[in-house]
TrEMBL record:
Belongs to the flavin-dependent halogenase family. Bacterial tryptophan halogenase subfamily. This is Flavin-dependent dehydrogenase. The lineage of its organism: Bacteria, Bacillati, Actinomycetota, Actinomycetes, Pseudonocardiales. Keywords: Monooxygenase, Oxidoreductase. Pfam families: Trp_halogenase. It comes from Kibdelosporangium banguiense.
């Protein structure tokens, strides 16, 4: 293993693999340290089409396609008084645009691909400490995850912190992670064999089904299992766990109130124990600093309602690679490139924050605790700075102009073509163009998907409208 590298990436999830792979492809020297030995389990199985141009740029799309993951034709929502759907292919796009993935396999493919592109990938090694000179990280001290007595130091010029929820920079050094108290949710999930296919909506869709105290995801996977998870408010979850006697009991009781999921699982067998995550919505106050960029979950994470985690991870990984590449080549200064990164990434995140909030505001079980818990009070709006975020999304012309200049100069570094380029500015412009549209949940979600993929279409499902209030 090297003792000095040009760019160090911490973490081999989608954010780290994307950043490292694109940087290596652009000719830079990159080392990536990952504390686990892959394949490793991870939640986050439903992928958005926005990842496609990034995977194409990495050159990994064909490999992913050959692997045989479950093609994902879109999303189907049993949400609110109506059922509705997002179709990824309705506007004549060619074949698969996204998948439902077993993350252990998906992440390994991405990491192996980064290695093939020239990244030095070292697994089973944890970054324990960073060394700073005048506030700039210059070296990492690592130790073997299973053999802590094996240690070393690696110096670097630039750092991408893609360490996921662990968040080396933001939790250990900056201490600038801000938790979204309004989305204080718990997710509890398991895997089922023999589940039925959804009898409506696009093939391979994720089903999102609201229940009185939260909502379920149901994701069909290519290994024959279905991932089925409950998201509910933390206080409510803890209360019910005490009342009912355990996590499994809370999960089953919620499921009993969800006809769509019950139908999918009517002949199925649960084949895994329960897994739980909580308090997973947060944002770091800054995503950049001297010599470093923070990407993916290490920077921010929003409620999984719209399956946006891997999108933000790969998107920010791509932006980080573009920003660093432009600085290393001497075409723009670090401050300018970092501003580009911070602006574009934060806007993408804030746009999703607005969309998820709008979505929860339309929650089906309006008489229930979950709705009230997710409902934004004025104080919450202030805390999330939602109005400001919304204003920035729909009127972000100044930000765009700033970023446009930098982007024009750096786009050449990643070898993108005009048609295949995942040009973040074009994405933001599309949202800007939509600013006149009222922010209903449908428009919000359509905005999200259209922003990242021009050929998607949202349409109301061809099913009877039920229970309109
Ligand atoms: P990760 O994938 O977490 O990778 C970070 C890596 O860093 C890990 O491999 C870790 O081992 C490594 N690491 C950490 N610390 C160190 C260290 N000190 N040294 C070395 N290595 C280190 N997203 C979706 O897109 N679709 C979904 O359907 C979806 N569902 C979700 C459901 C739930 C309940 C939750 C909680 C999340 C969900 N997500 C979903 C989000 C998704 O899982 C994440 O956003 C995504 O994995 C982020 O990728 P990442 O590369 O930033 O981080």
């Amino acid at each position: 293993m090297r003792t000095a590298t040009q760019i160090l990436v911490i973490g081999g999830g989608p954010a780290g693999s994307t950043a490292a792979g694109l940087l290596a492809k652009a000719g830079h020297q990159v080392t990536l340290l990952e504390r686990e030995k892959f394949p490793r389990y991870h939640i986050g199985e439903s992928i958005l089409p926005s990842c496609r141009p990034i995977f194409e740029q990495l050159g990994v799309w064909d490999k992913l396609e050959r692997h045989g993951f479950q093609p994902k034709g879109g999303a189907y929502f049993f949400w609110g008084p109506e059922e509705w759907e997002v179709r990824f292919n309705d506007l004549g796009s060619d074949g698969t645009n996204a998948w439902q993935v077993v993350r252990a396999e998906f992440d390994q493919l991405l990491l192996d691909h980064a290695e093939e592109l020239g990244v030095e990938v070292v697994q089973g090694v944890s970054v324990r400490e960073l060394e700073f000179e005048d506030g700039r990280p210059v070296a990492a001290h690592w130790a073997g995850t299973k053999e802590p007595s094996v240690t070393g130091r690696i110096g670097f010029d630039y750092l991408v912190d893609a360490s996921g929820r662990a968040g080396v920079m933001s939790t250990k050094y900056l201490r600038n992670r801000k938790w979204h108290t309004v989305f204080r949710n718990v997710a509890a999930w398991s895997y089922w064999k023999g589940a039925k296919q959804l009898d409506r909506g696009p093939a391979g869709a994720i089903a999102v089904c609201s229940v009185p105290d939260g909502w379920f995801w149901a994701i069909p996977l290519h290994d024959g299992t279905m991932s089925v998870g409950l998201v509910t408010g933390k206080d409510d979850f803890n209360r019910r766990r005490t009342e009912l006697g355990g996590i499994e009991e809370v999960y089953q009781a919620a499921m009993a109130q969800c006809p769509a999921v019950l139908e999918l699982l009517s002949d199925a067998e649960q084949v895994a124990g329960m897994k739980v995550e909580q308090d997973y919505s947060y944002v770091a106050e800054q995503f950049t600093g001297p010599g470093y960029l923070i990407s993916g979950d290490a920077a921010c994470f929003l409620d999984p309602l719209l399956s946006t985690g891997v999108h933000l991870a790969t998107y920010s990984g791509m932006l980080a690679a573009a920003a660093i590449s432009s600085v290393v080549s001497g075409e723009v200064g670090e401050q300018e490139a970092w501003e580009f990164y911070g602006t574009v990434y934060r806007q993408a995140y804030e746009r999703l924050l607005v969309l998820v909030s709008v979505f929860y505001e339309s929650y089906r079980g309006k008489d229930h605790h979950f709705y009230n818990a997710q409902r934004l009070s004025e104080a919450d709006r202030d805390e999330l700075d939602l109005q400001a975020a919304f204003n920035r999304i729909v009127t972000g012309v100044a930000d765009l102009d700033d970023a446009k200049d930098v982007y024009r100069r750096i786009r050449g570094h990643l070898g993108g073509t005009e048609s295949g380029d995942p040009n973040p500015l074009a994405n933001l412009n599309k949202v800007h163009e939509r600013k006149q549209a009222p922010m209903t949940p449908e428009n919000a979600v359509a905005g999200l998907y259209l922003a990242f993929h021009p050929r998607l279409m949202l349409r109301r499902a061809d099913v009877p409208i039920i229970g309109r209030r």
